[in-house]
Automatic annotation (TrEMBL):
<dbReference type="Pfam" id="PF12802">
    <property type="entry name" value="MarR_2"/>
</dbReference>
<dbReference type="Pfam" id="PF00480">
    <property type="entry name" value="ROK"/>
</dbReference>
<dbReference type="InterPro" id="IPR000600">
    <property type="entry name" value="ROK"/>
</dbReference>
<dbReference type="InterPro" id="IPR043129">
    <property type="entry name" value="ATPase_NBD"/>
</dbReference>
<dbReference type="InterPro" id="IPR036390">
    <property type="entry name" value="WH_DNA-bd_sf"/>
</dbReference>
<comment type="similarity">
    <text>Belongs to the ROK (NagC/XylR) family.</text>
</comment>
<dbReference type="InterPro" id="IPR000835">
    <property type="entry name" value="HTH_MarR-typ"/>
</dbReference>
<feature type="domain" description="HTH marR-type">
    <location>
        <begin position="8"/>
        <end position="50"/>
    </location>
</feature>
<dbReference type="InterPro" id="IPR036388">
    <property type="entry name" value="WH-like_DNA-bd_sf"/>
</dbReference>
<protein>
    <submittedName>
        <fullName>ROK family transcriptional regulator</fullName>
    </submittedName>
</protein>
Length: 402
């Protein structure tokens, strides 16, 4: 019961910002003395701190409190076609450590990809410890269909992986006691975009683009996983029946016309330096933007064409789900402003309801970090569920398991 009340206070501060003890008591339906005692306990755990004087209320102004937790971190990590990455966020969402390694994952053995990812997780955790903090858990996002019960990556067309027991493999490397969980990267990106307490971000679709295209559905502030957990595989909607064969084996999937590969094919010849696999993803996107800035007609036409296909798929999703916003993440976030006119044109033309049913097109500010940030946020949920766990950091996360 005590942990549940501490959780209520901590979540209220996360979702609604700094509050006085009196205001917390009123909002949570408890006495002021009870709220004060809970705040004092959270302060002892290092999870909240004083945040100045709260003014504008009835009666005497009180001292407000806010999330602290600067020494408590969650790690988010990711396996994608072009890279592996890891990030540590503290309880307030601040970046404490971050590492990313370019990697042509579909050309490298599975074991090597997992080894590189574990190295990044360990480096990130070491950075946190060097700053006097500790990690409460880690969540890894993978690009493909995931059986969460078995933590098995069942099908990953762009990675060219099938039936890889990612959870077991990572625990074998990190230690069986390491508190790690596995999820789909699109789901994690959606979680990162669903800002707690922001009413405009409680019913959204997140479209996460790289070589493949996926995403997540947030309904009423919660991630919608579907019956078997496979919701959000937007990239495999059939939109072009006479089109290209997809990595999944079918023809005309949305990602064949809206993924990064489609954009590069339209914008550059095979011998163009931008098509060199050695060129990093970030550098490719910088070059695309540079050419568009210079008025290169082929680049502009490619952006318009791919943006139009993004709009076609967005309209299909809007007709089915009517989100408040469609958030463009991943590579779309880096060049989405240039695609936006074409996306919005096809969204308006393809949605049956007037004015695209009120659905907005938004560009993520998180870009390629969305999935790892979402992973870190999921790992930190353990603290919001039971703040007392920070009193005894897991030995496995303090170097005891390795």
């Amino acid at each position: 019961m005590r942990s549940a009340k501490l959780s209520l206070v901590l979540r209220q501060l996360r979702d609604h910002g700094p509050r006085s003890r009196a205001r917390l008591a009123a909002e949570l339906g408890m006495t002021r003395s009870a709220a004060s005692a809970l705040v004092a306990e959270l302060a002892e755990l290092g999870l909240v701190r004083a945040a100045g004087i709260e003014r504008g209320g009835v009666g005497r102004p009180g001292t407000s409190v806010e999330l602290d937790g600067s020494a408590v971190c969650g790690i988010g990590a990711e396996i994608n076609v072009n890279h592996v990455a890891a990030i540590a966020l503290d309880l307030a969402g601040n970046v404490v450590a971050e590492h990313r390694l370019p990697l042509d994952a579909h050309r490298v053995a599975v074991d090597e990809v997992l080894d590189r990812l574990v190295e990044l997780i360990e480096r990130t955790e070491a950075d946190v410890r060097a700053r006097g903090g500790h990690v409460v858990g880690a969540t890894v996002g993978v690009a493909g269909l995931l059986d969460r019960t078995r933590e098995m990556l069942t099908v990953a067309p762009n990675l060219r992986w099938r039936d890889v027991p990612v959870g077991a493999e990572l625990r074998g490397r990190l230690g069986a006691a390491y508190p790690i969980s596995i999820d789909n990267e699109g789901n994690l990106a959606a979680i990162a975009e669903a800002t707690p307490g922001d009413p405009n971000r409680q019913d959204i679709l997140v479209i996460f683009g790289e070589v493949g295209v996926g995403g997540g559905i947030i309904a009423g502030g919660r991630l919608l996983r579907g019956h078997q957990g496979y919701a959000g595989e937007f990239g495999h909607m059939i939109v072009d029946q006479g089109g290209r064969r997809c990595g999944c084996g079918r023809v005309g999937c949305w990602e064949t016309v809206s993924g990064l590969r489609a954009l590069l094919d339209a914008a550059a010849d095979p011998d163009d330096p931008m098509r060199d696999p050695a060129m990093s993803l970030d550098d490719r996107l910088v070059e695309l933007n540079r050419r568009a800035d210079l008025g290169d007609m082929r680049t502009i036409a490619a952006l318009d064409s791919v943006g139009g296909w993004v709009g076609v798929g967005a309209a299909m999703l809007t007709n089915a789900l009517n989100p408040a916003a469609i958030v463009l993440s991943g590579y779309f976030a880096e060049i989405g402003q240039r695609m936006r006119p074409a996306i919005e044109e096809h969204l308006l033309g393809g949605v049956v309801a007037p004015q695209a049913a009120g659905t907005r097109v938004e560009i993520s500010t998180l870009g390629f970090t969305a999935a790892v940030r979402g992973g870190a946020a999921v790992a930190l949920e353990a603290v919001f569920d039971d703040p007392t766990i920070v009193a005894s950091p897991p030995a496995a996360l303090m170097g005891g398991a390795r």
